[in-house]
Amino acid sequence: MEEKRSNIKLLFIINPSSGSGEINFSEVINAYFTDKPNDFELYELSNNCTLEKIKAVIKKSKANRVIAVGGDGTLKLVAECLFETDTPIGIIPAGSANGMARELGIPTEIEQALDLTLSGSPKKIHAIIVNGELCIHLADIGFNAYLVKKFDALPQRGMLGYAKAAWQALWSHHKMHVELKIKDKLISAEAAMVVIANATMYGTGVKINPDGQLDDDLFEVILVKEYSIMEILKIRFTNRRFNPKNIESFQTSDLAIKTKHKAHFQVDGEYRGKVNGVKAHIITEAVNIIH
Fold this sequence. Notes:
Layout: E1 9-14, H1 25-32, E2 39-44, H2 51-61, E3 65-70, H3 72-81, E4 88-93, H4 99-104, H5 110-119, E5 122-130, E6 133-135, E7 138-142, H6 143-153, H7 158-172, E8 176-182, E9 185-191, E10 193-197, E11 219-224, H8 229-237, E12 247-252, E13 254-267, E14 270-290
Parallel strand pairs: 1-2, 1-3, 3-4, 4-14
Antiparallel strand pairs: 5-6, 5-14, 7-10, 7-13, 8-9, 8-13, 10-11, 11-12, 13-14
């Protein structure tokens, strides 16, 4: 049975440090519901907030829908709390990276996004478990993970900070030797990076994985073989087709990667250090997302 709009209770999980910090999302949300009949609660994340604490807040609220107010990291945190449950998760994109909001067509204008938390329909999407960690967007090893590390270390945010990080990474990152086991196939190659793609695009809106679907039984593996500056920049900034000699794409439900030397590794925009291997498998109908 569908929820009646007036009977929906919402819990907003707010990351107050998301984005530029110029908007007080608690005030905006309170103002939005001034003339609406819906019951709602606000919960602001603190620096020492644990999954167990957030789960307890969600359980106590008895909310019909839980809304992540922040970037991809905030959404991932809420998804971890509601993993493999039927509780719908909404998104108010408020981070420096809003890749999944862009993927799902969530409006960037706050009031329109709030409208969608009430009127939108839930949809079950899959996720990937990557080295034991939930991945709802993109994970990778190699160049882009190194770029994430460089970007995190810079004081500038936005495109200027990204450009500086990219320039540093392009001059200092080296190719790696990888072995990919995809089903019964073993692939050995020199690579700049390997992307484990749940979604189709980066937060910039550029599609790295045009064949991806969020509700099928497969994820994609993008092997960037040739270390070409132009090919790497195409991944991030253009809509041009990739050269198949440089970039290959595979579909699978499980994956194992081994590297000769430790490689930089990131999951959903969070740098996770250097690893010698990655294991990944799909979980179908993992989270219920409002879109």
